[in-house]
Amino acid sequence: MTLPLNMKRPDRNRPEPLWHQAEQALRTLIADGTWPDGTQLPNEAKLSEMLGVSRITIRHALRNLEESGLLRREHGRGTFVRSSTVIAGVRGLTSFTQEMAERGLVVGSRVLEMCQMPADTEISDALDIRENEPVIKIRRLRAGNNQPVGIQTAYLPAGRVAGILDISEPMLSLYDILRNRFGIVPRVAREIYRVGTVSAEDAGLLEVEAGSPAFIVRRITSDGNGPFEFTISTMRGDRYEIRSKLHL
Q1: H-state helical runs in the chain
Q2: What are phi and psi of 60, to 5 degrees?
Q3: Where on the phi/psi map is residue 72: left (φ > 0), alpha (ψ -120 to 50), or beta?
Q4: Looking at the structure, do residues 73 and 96 belong to the same domain, yes or no?
Q5: Which residues of the chain have pLDDT under 70?
Q6: pLDDT tens for residues 84-108?
Q7: Where in this chain does the record put each HTH gntR-type domain (predicted)?
């Protein structure tokens, strides 16, 4: 493989570690499409020659990119650029509580924040309401078998869930509360998954290091009256899976 024109070789006179510079050089080639999804990278020896650094430095950079979800290593085949966008396969409309039950795990939930706030542009677009219209924000730490799995932040139109801030019962399943208290029954949901990393804010709660791989999930759920829930979730990459059943 010839040296890409936009590949920036590490500079030993710069203060940043060589492995960091090598990682950024490779990350740029992935981000700008020079190496698109599925591209097989040159082997460590070739990358070492291309970037002018040791194989140990290259190995460090590749490991970081793999942990960030940008690369995948296949034993005996090599290292490939991994797609950063994953769309979940078709499945039933389930809550987190149902998902954990289906996997044989005991669900846990802790409310981290629950308040009313004005909807920003992203929230208003998702819920099909006016910007700055009041919404209820519910941020929860979700667990399975007492192990943290993810952090979910749900936004609900305040007008459809009047009095929800006064509920004192544990919020294991938000959908059960919406169904039983407000007559809101989900009919359809749209989810988008992408590979991301755990923020510094969430790292301690999820018991991982900041920057650890994660699924970032955006979900809009609707009933017969339109969207009633917009949820943004950060799910630990090592404790959450996307499962699909395929048929001929």
Answers
A1: 18-31, 44-51, 55-67, 96-102, 121-127, 174-182, 200-206
A2: -65, -45
A3: beta
A4: no
A5: 1-3, 5-6, 68-69, 83-106, 170, 241-248
A6: 333 334 444 455 555 555 545 567 7
A7: 16-84
